[in-house]
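Q: Sequence in, structure out?
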Amino acid sequence: MSGASAATIARQMNRSEGAVRKTRRPAKYRAGQSVPEPRAEGEGEMKSRSAGNTPPDPFKIFMNAERADVLLRSFQDPQIAVAVANPALVLSAFASELYLKSILVIEKGKAPGWHHLKNLFDLVSPAIRKKIERHWIHHVSSQRTKRTFAAIALLTGQDVPTDFNWALSVGAQAFVKLRYVHEDDGFETKFLLGELPDMLRQVIVDELKPAWAPMIHGPMQPIPGFENTI
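A: Exactly. Output:
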């Protein structure tokens, strides 16, 4: 997690509690007609977003997550990292969502359409959850993470819990909420899960699909006749 990410998280931790985005009335409802309350994420049956009855492909989900993860790894320049800190956190949340859904499709044959990371994680088998939690413990025990958390505490005046369940709970809706920080500065989203995509990917290739380990996106290869355009 970069210093830019630490500063972004610190700003998030200083925002006020309880802000909720307004839900617009769908145009298809006429004035005076009752509008059903939107279903909270995590409720209802698990379902795939795949068209028709086509079962979801966990490898396609995995590779979609990999694309997002590759972009995250490309933010090595500190100046670029500062400029893209918030979008990078959104992308990290999205990659984690996709990796979790890949796990669920591997284990259960289907995954819900939710973005809520905690609800998705809770559907994963206990054995795989423990593997993920072990990666988190290793992560928060590293000197780099300790320095990042210490910087956040210094900026905010708040100690940062290292408990994975806490981090997952407070950052569960980051993919939705961090996209709209321009609408309301009161969003209370503490996203400390920037490294989670790599942990989830590692668990997938170590425990579930070892054959997927080399399946990464590398640089484009030159196309005959178009060598100077890449």
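The chain has ten helices and no strands.
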